[in-house]
Write a structure and sequence with these properties.
MetI-like fold; 11 helices
């Protein structure tokens, strides 16, 4: 491999480098433990404390509060879905503008930095500082905060997917006389859309968890129920609400995972079929 000019196997690091790296990792862990004030006696008592909290929340279990918790969970799902739609709709064109292979270098750099800035601001900060003062307490502020933060993440992922496309379809669209919009529509979008939709669904799963956290600051949803029940020390009601959150999250993750796999597998089958028909010898063998 080395004789033909290809990259060979990387050189094995010396023992000195390995020892220095190991010592640096140990010192880093020790510094982190001291910085967060980890105490051994608290760690030893942690299982007993967790069991006491579990008893107060689930023994006995408050069945009568489940309908109220399910209503809050449905509100959180609606909040997460609205935020995901906002993020998907805005991030798709921004992702194309941020991809260096379909946009100019100046524009792509500006869009990339804009997406980085949006992604750097957590949903909690957006909700407390920006949207709750504008829209007031409730799920509207939470949905807007989730949507804006989703733009940064989905836009970056979209740009990276677009940069990894096969240029053959783009060249074919240009050779057929297509303008810039037509090249993007028929040469780029069909290649990247299945993977982008899979990213949207995965982001929806993340936004469900974010919607539950945003309830702590008054953005509505099931998180607000958890906060209120804990503030009034109604641990049995908080336990019923947390159980609803866990079950709903598992169900959404399962359904979304199945849909994502179907989308990606369908795209892979279409790509493999197109590769077969582009090679005459494989078509003759199949017939």
């Amino acid at each position: 491999m080395t004789a033909t000019g290809a990259l060979g196997r990387p050189a094995r690091p010396s023992r000195l480098v390995v020892r220095v790296a190991t010592l640096a990792a140990i010192l880093l862990v020790g510094w982190a433990v001291l910085s967060v004030d980890v105490r051994l006696e608290r760690l030893i008592d942690l299982p007993a404390q967790l069991w006491r909290i579990f008893q107060r929340m689930f023994l006995p279990f408050e069945v009568s509060y489940l309908p109220r918790a399910m209503d809050g969970m449905l509100q959180s799902l609606a909040m997460a879905w609205t935020g995901t739609v906002i993020g998907a709709a805005v991030s798709l064109p921004l992702g194309f503008l941020g991809a260096k292979n379909v946009s100019s270098g100046f524009v792509s750099n500006i869009v990339r930095q804009l997406l980085n800035a949006i992604r750097a601001i957590p949903e909690l900060i957006l909700a407390v500082v920006v949207f709750i003062p504008i829209a007031g307490l409730g799920p509207v502020a939470g949905a807007l905060a989730i949507g804006i933060h989703s733009i940064g993440t989905l836009g970056k992922l979209t740009a990276e997917v677009v940069e990894g496309i096969d240029p053959g379809s783009v060249e074919a669209a240009r050779a057929a006389g297509g303008n810039g919009w037509q090249v993007q529509r028929w040469g780029v979008l069909p290649q990247v859309l299945p993977e982008i939709v899979a990213f949207w669904l995965y982001r929806f799963e993340i936004n469900i968890r974010a919607s539950a956290v945003l309830g702590v600051v008054g953005a509505g949803g099931v998180g607000e129920l958890v906060t209120n029940t804990l503030n009034y020390r109604r641990y049995e009601l908080a336990g019923a609400t947390i159980l609803v959150i866990i079950i709903a999250t598992i169900l959404v993750d399962y359904v979304s995972g199945r849909v994502r796999r179907r989308i990606i597998e369908g795209a892979e089958r279409r790509v493999s079929a197109s590769e077969v028909f582009e090679q005459p010898e494989l078509v003759e063998q199949s017939t």
